[in-house]
């Protein structure tokens, strides 16, 4: 079209146009002849290669290609095997962790009914027994830095499970250990030392494996397994305690379950999970004190980061600001309302079922919600759920026609469930922010800070109950303590700005959308280039005419 317009509008340039046309035709002829020669050469080359060789099966791939395919296939099978081993190890470990409510339910009834402890004494035993949990950063640093037999996660899990077997086995088989308060405290402390070591190693294992394999949902899976164990533990515990009235049998059954977990854990090699010993620890052997000092200093640097320090401060303050009255409410339900153990156990079952449902919803949909908005909703719901105990204490449920058993069954464990669920987004956040090689240190520091805040909350609740005069025979001021709990639960909303706005998964979604846009731009670029070359081929065909 351009050539025709120029030649008709401007006849003086017709000779020039004819010359250009001839030149382009000659160039095209040369290029076509070159392509034909290249095709002919390639054909003759192929004939020379294929001609003398009649056996086609002897043609083989290069060695490097063979090795690459073999290793890719081997890595694929090993990764599938490591995922199965990790699912079994993580599922069994966190399920048993949730099942710890089974012996603890028996121990609470044994101390309240069998030993006739005061509510304040019962709560002191409950929260003082958690003191070994405060030392979790020490266990985390040891797990990160000190290898045992070429592994640094599974051996610590086995050690912690073994200590728990010793503690609960003594309570089950030695009568003196379950009758005197000092002996009970010693067994509880030993059990929690083992539980804290096991929890630190499991949390570090989940964080490290999730980062290396880019699996962000392992924390949700761990919460699901723990909630499933809590459901079954409370259900069986309440029914078993109601029928047998033998707490020692429950201690013995849990010891047998821990022995089974010890067998599963000891039979799993850490190398099968793709977490073999690092070269720097196998080649250089430093003193434990030097390793501990370096790991501790690096942990302090990581904790001082604003992205870690601000949400950590908020979650810790939101727990310790609310005085816990769990011991007083438990004694009120068993001594004043005369609720059966099965009712309290089933209330815990319903609470753990709600926790499991909330965890599934969070894993599917909750990660898309901004974290600050999600935490504000959860905190307000937690504060409102504390008022349900006020309804039970003031017997307002009877005025609405709801018996005490049914109200305690449906709403007694709601506040505890929401308090546990509030920790899940923070576990996911810190697991994604943990530096490589410091997963155990950071996650154990988080667990220690949460445990310390919970212990402080329990001691604050004991002081509040003593100040209000709440005893085993007088619960007249218990409603005032519940109202103080409600007001204190609303206070952390004032510094909600410490919680990050976005969750770590939203950042990944943003990167994924950016990659989609880049791929789209590349496709658009290919379309433009292809249209340009098609236009050139069409123009050359017009010139040939």
Automatic annotation (TrEMBL):
Which superkingdom is the protein from?
Eukaryota
- Provide any one GO MF term from the record: folic acid transmembrane transporter activity
Listed transmembrane segments = 221-242, 312-330, 342-362, 374-394, 406-430, 442-470, 482-502
- Which Gene3D superfamilies does this chain map to? MFS general substrate transporter like domains
SUPFAM superfamilies per record:
MFS general substrate transporter (SSF103473)
Q: Which GO terms describe its cellular component?
A: membrane
What topology does the record note for this protein and the membrane? Multi-pass membrane protein
One protein family per Pfam:
BT1
Q: Where in the cell is it found?
A: Membrane
Does NAD count among this protein's keywords? no
UniProt entry keywords in alphabetical sequence: Membrane, Transmembrane, Transmembrane helix, Transport
- Keyword Metal-binding listed: no
Biological process GO annotation list?
folate transmembrane transport
Predominant place of localization: membrane
**Belongs to which family?**
Belongs to the major facilitator superfamily. Phosphate:H(+) symporter (TC 2.A.1.9) family. Belongs to the major facilitator superfamily. Folate-biopterin transporter (TC 2.A.71) family.
What is the protein name given in its UniProt record?
Folate-biopterin transporter 8, chloroplastic isoform X1
Q: Which organism is it from?
A: Nicotiana tabacum
Q: Quick one: which gene encodes this? A: LOC107826919
């Amino acid at each position: 079209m351009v050539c025709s317009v120029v030649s008709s509008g401007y006849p003086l340039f017709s000779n020039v146009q004819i010359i250009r046309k001839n030149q382009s035709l000659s160039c095209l002829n040369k290029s076509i002849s070159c392509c034909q020669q290249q095709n002919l050469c390639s054909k003759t080359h192929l004939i020379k290669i294929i001609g003398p060789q009649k056996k086609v099966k002897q043609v083989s791939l290069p060695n490097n290609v063979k090795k690459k395919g073999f290793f890719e296939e081997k890595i694929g099978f090993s990764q599938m095997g490591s995922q199965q081993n990790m699912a079994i190890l993580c599922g069994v470990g966190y399920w048993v962790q949730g099942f710890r409510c089974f012996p603890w339910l028996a121990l609470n009834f044994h101390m309240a009914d069998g030993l006739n402890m005061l509510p304040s004494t019962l709560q002191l035993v409950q929260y003082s027994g958690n003191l070994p949990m405060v030392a979790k950063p020490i266990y985390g640093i040891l797990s990160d830095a000190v290898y045992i037999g070429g592994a640094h996660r599974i051996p610590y899990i086995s050690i912690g499970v073994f200590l728990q077997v010793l503690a609960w086995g003594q309570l089950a088989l030695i009568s003196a250990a379950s009758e005197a308060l000092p002996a009970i405290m010693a067994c509880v402390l030993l059990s929690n030392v083992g539980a804290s070591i096991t929890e630190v190693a499991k949390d570090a294992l989940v964080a490290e494996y999730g980062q290396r394999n880019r699996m962000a949902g392992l924390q949700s899976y761990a919460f699901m397994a723990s909630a499933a164990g809590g459901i079954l533990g409370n259900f069986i515990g309440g029914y078993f305690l109601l029928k047998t009235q033998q707490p020692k049998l429950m201690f013995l059954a849990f010891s047998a379950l821990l022995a089974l977990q010890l067998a599963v854990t000891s039979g799993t090699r850490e190398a099968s999970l793709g977490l073999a010993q690092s070269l720097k620890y196998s080649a250089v052997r430093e003193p434990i004190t030097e390793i501990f000092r370096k790991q501790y200093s690096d942990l302090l640097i990581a904790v001082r980061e604003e992205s870690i320090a601000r949400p950590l401060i908020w979650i810790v303050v939101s727990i310790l600001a609310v005085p816990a009255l769990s011991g007083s409410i438990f004694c009120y339900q068993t001594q004043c309302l005369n609720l059966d153990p099965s009712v309290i156990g089933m209330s815990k079952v319903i609470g753990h079922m709600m926790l499991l449902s909330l965890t599934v919803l969070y894993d599917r949909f909750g990660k898309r919600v901004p974290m600050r908005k999600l935490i504000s909703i959860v905190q307000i719901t937690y504060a409102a759920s504390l008022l349900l105990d006020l309804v039970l204490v003031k017997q307002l449920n009877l005025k609405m026609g709801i018996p005490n058993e049914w109200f305690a069954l449906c709403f007694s464990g709601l506040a505890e469930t929401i308090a546990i669920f509030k920790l899940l987004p923070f576990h996911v956040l810190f697991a994604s922010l943990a530096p490589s090689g410091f997963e155990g240190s950071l996650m154990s520091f988080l667990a220690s800070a949460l445990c310390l805040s919970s212990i402080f909350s329990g001691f604050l609740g004991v002081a509040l109950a003593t100040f209000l005069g709440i005893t085993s025979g007088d619960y007249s001021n218990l409603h005032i303590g519940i109202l103080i709990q409600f007001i204190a639960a609303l206070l952390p909303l004032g510094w909600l700005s410490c919680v990050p706005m976005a969750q770590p998964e939203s950042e990944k979604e943003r990167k994924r959308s950016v990659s989609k846009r880049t791929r789209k731009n590349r496709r658009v670029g290919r379309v433009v280039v292809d249209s340009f070359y098609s236009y050139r081929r069409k123009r050359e065909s017009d010139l040939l005419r």
